[in-house]
Structures are given as C-alpha cells and as structure tokens.
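Reply to dn_fold:

You asked what the input looked like. This is it:
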Amino acid sequence: IRARRKHSAVESDINALEANGLDKCPDKGIEGFERYVALAVVASNLKRLGKILLTRDRQ
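and this is what came back:
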C-alpha cells in the first residue's frame, strides 16, 4: 500500500523533470545516464529556488 501511495509522487517528479528538459539520454553508458539525470535534477532544483527567491523579493 505504501508503494502505491508513493507511486503518484514519483510519477509527478518524473513529469517535472521531463518538463525541465529531461528527454532521451544522448550519453552512452551508465555513468553518462547518471550524469544526465543528475544535471536534470540540478536544473529542476535551480528553477525551484529561483521561483522561491522571486516570490520572496515580491513580498
């Protein structure tokens, strides 16, 4: 049951990464794939931080 509850959260996170540019991995090998995903996560986190900072500045 726990896994089913987390499934929608994981799907949501994957969708957010895809919306931020994660697509078919152009890199070769597992190291390339891990690097590609890590950079997509960093980009998503930077975008999220930017939104937080903009909201803070507007207040």
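The chain has one domain: 2-58.
Hope that clears it up.
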